[in-house]
Amino acid sequence: MESADDYPEPWAKSNLKDYLGHENELPIEGNALLASIAPRHLMIHTAYNDGSDPTFGVERNYLNAKKAYQFLDVSDHIYLSYRTGQHNPITATHAKHMFDFFDRSFKRGTAKKEDFSEVLLHDFDFLEWKSKQRKNDLNVSNNAPVEERINWMLGEQSKSEVEE
Questions:
Q1: Which domain holds residue 47?
Q2: pLDDT digits over 88-108, tens only?
């Protein structure tokens, strides 16, 4: 697992570790940074097994930044590209795919819009999920005993777990 100490100064300020556990207080978030690039073209390129860029977080940033692109009616200017493997290496095939995206952005080359279809690994809608939950499953009293809060967090046992 990587930590703030793993990054050299040019990548992250030395006080980044001060935000561990309360990342919500960081002065900028990935969503805002990516959205600020709109309406210019943006490719987010990561690997399925990238230890530096967890795919769930990358996808959340992409989907939230995409709202700015949709607002500006340029949804095809943002693209999330997954590649096989880990953080490295970037192969010649990966580089060609990236150049094809930007060649298309500058109306060069032969790449078509269809060559850059959206692929989501974590197609998750929190509000849809929440709408399917029982109201009492969503809340537990802060005054409840610790054991009750732990049991609430763990959820109900499935029938197969009870039978075992």
A1: 26-130
A2: 888 888 889 999 999 999 889
